[in-house]
Amino acid sequence: VFEPLVIVLRLVDGDVKPSMAWLYGELVKAKREMKDAFSNMERNYKDTMSIVDKKMNGRLDSSKSVLKYTLRMIRILACWLSMMNF
Fold first, then answer.
1. What whole-number distance in Å separates Cα of residue 8 and Cα of residue 80?
2. CA separation (Å) from 5 to 60, 67, 76, 81, 84?
3. Contact 11, 23 (CB under 8 A)
4. Contact present, 5 and 52 (Cβ < 8 Å)
5. pTM score, two decimals?
6. Which of 4, 6, 84, 86 has the most C-beta neighbours closer than 10 Å?
């Protein structure tokens, strides 16, 4: 259940520090995977997600982080489309 969150924590603790925008995306993905592991039943994951959200509050959930993450995804998509000759 907590494996996705452990992966994110290892990324943060590693020698190479990821950008905040990339970290935001990985954390969103980890939260989604944790919800799936709890069978998408809110009563099962509510306490866990509240802890994660509390730690994210004011750090990774700011509009600046969301914007950087979105722009990063757009750049990746544009690069992929140019490689596919679209």
1. 25
2. 15, 22, 24, 31, 33
3. yes
4. yes
5. 0.57
6. 4
